[in-house]
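Quick question, first post here. What does this chain look like in 3D?
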Amino acid sequence: ALASLQDFAVTPLRIVEQARLLEAAAGSADTLGIRSGAIARQPALSLSGGNQQKVVLGRWLLSDPSLIILDEPTRGIDVAAKHDIYQMIDGLAADGVGVLFVSSELEELIAMCDRILTMSRGEIVGSFDRSSFDDRAILQAAFRETVAP
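> Answer (accepted):
Ran it through. Tokens below.
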């Protein structure tokens, strides 16, 4: 809850209301499907990779963002954890949260995004809306190859 700690320090002395903080963290863990022991005692580093990734996402979600930037959010995690994270992302988008999703996995981008921008050498070199997703054209843009007519 570190990213939103100020929301739990509402007393005049800015003392953190620990019970409210733990309740919010437990709610976030439940929503994200984090499998762990006691939330206040189990270090995040002792969790599986997928659950660690969910902890990081949960930390930022407690701050009630209007935009969230996810850079390779599913790299190195199992299929079940990926599915949970995809559902969370879909839920955020449905709630009106802007999601900037960065991934090197084209299939993941095509499945998750409404729009794909390709970058090469620090420049945006292609823009594709869901109706024009074409994996070959996206890859050609990313590698700055000319698209044959």
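The chain has a mean pLDDT of 86.
DSSP finds five helices and four strands in the chain.
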